Amino acid sequence: MEEIIGMLNGIVWSNALIILCLGTGFYFSCRTRFLQIRHVKEMFRLLFDGKSSESGVSSFQALSMSLAGRVGTGNIAGVATAIAFGGPGALFWMWMVAFFGASTAFVEATLAQIYKEKHLGEFRGGPAFYIERGLGVKWFGVLFAVVSIVSAGVLLPGVQANSVADGIQNAFEIDTWKSGVVVALIFGAIVFGGVKRIAKFTEFVVPIMAIAYIVIVLVIIAIDIDKLPGVIALVFKSAFNMEAGFGAVFGLAIQWGVKRGIYSNEAGQGTAPHIAAAANVSHPTKQGLVQSFSVYIDTLLVCSATGFMLLITGKYNVLNPVLGPDGATNYLYQGAQNVSAGPGFTQTAMDSVLPGFGSYFVAIALFFFAFTTLLAYYYIAETNISYLTRNFKSPIFSHLLKVFMMVVIMYGSINQAKLAWNIGDLGVGLMAWFNIIAILLLQKPALLALKDYEKQRKAGIDPVFHPEDIGVSNAHIWNTINKKKEE
């Protein structure tokens, strides 16, 4: 099984996908005139703009749900594995994916808003919807929906469940299968309450958990703040093969930085647009800008905090791709004895500064980070089921998904960490391939929406979207939305 997954990952995560991800981000940055810099103030203003309705959630709730998907084990365990296999330079390439990916996130989220639909009384949207309505290629939309259901409902949840169980076992010595059962039961209790319950839960939990984690990590960094300039220099030197000690993993730094960057912030992956479509806003660009900002929160804040803490404390390992005598594991750097790549690095780093506290705190943080990500995965899978079954009024398929994901969570908790991550990477890579190709083909409506938004803002108007006025077709839901507001 592990060999088959590894072989498929080698095909999906070839250099072509890495170039495609970085190249697409750079391209959209140029096309949008680097909106990720120009509109930072507007992004922040829009975080609290708009209110929820019977059909949709507020911008902040959509942001929280999106961050629930973005801020997960990738911010704790993912950063650790990126450094373990790619060295400190991998952190720089995660930053690059975030900076350029912010423009990619804008395009995909804006398209999701433009082509969203209403199903069973709720706004639904995402790549499958904009592929069918925007590109007019239904089979491509169906293919993406199937891949998304398999990825979000089967492949990706195992990584989150595995990291939670691993972290809890390290801290509290509780068997992984017991953690899996508890997580699955709590998961079921929330998802059976529908999207509004998911939105309310994430709106409350995500800001608290993210702020608490960042504050604790900043305290640890502040204790050895004199080491920070040297750590930053090490990251840049390693990223450009100017650090002799990590020269053997220079190419891997780019590969793992991009891979873990996409896994963490999800820019271009095609997951976040599903949640962006649920927002109740007057103009698609509003949610597009909010989603861009969420990439910054995820990678430039949370991932950077984890990376700096690991490097400052020195509690990490960097594997040498060249094995030692008799095939033994060889290290370019070993600062964490008998600790495997993953949450163990972060727990060891915290414990080295705050003895007796770090392991417990990381285990708790991992639980909330991963659990909210599982909720986001469920919503993504359910949205694609909604796309495939929108002519049916019965919720039976959604109920089956809930039960199936509970089983996946329990299985993932007892799986081997390496296999769980490989399976997760395969899911991310497949979705990224399909989605990036789609948004490159269907970029014009998003760029027109941005231009229209900027024009209305310049005129001092709270922007309202009228698709026909800018030459965008098949966005029928907006006629209903605007008519309802007029009434």
UniProtKB/TrEMBL annotation:
Quote one Gene Ontology molecular function term.
amino acid:sodium symporter activity
Q: Which family does it belong to?
A: Belongs to the alanine or glycine:cation symporter (AGCS) (TC 2.A.25) family.
Which PANTHER family does this entry report, sorted A to Z? AGSS FAMILY TRANSPORTER, SODIUM-ALANINE, SODIUM_PROTON-DEPENDENT ALANINE CARRIER PROTEIN YRBD-RELATED
Sequence intervals crossing the membrane: 6-28, 67-86, 92-115, 136-156, 176-195, 204-225, 231-254, 293-312, 360-380, 392-414, 420-442
As for subcellular location, the record says:
Cell membrane
Stated name of the protein: Sodium:alanine symporter
- UniProt keyword annotation of Transmembrane present: yes
- The domain of life for this entry's organism is Bacteria
The record gives the membrane topology as:
Multi-pass membrane protein
Q: Name one GO cellular component term.
A: plasma membrane
Instruction: Identify the keywords attached in UniProt to this record, alphabetized.
Output: Cell membrane, Membrane, Symport, Transmembrane, Transmembrane helix, Transport
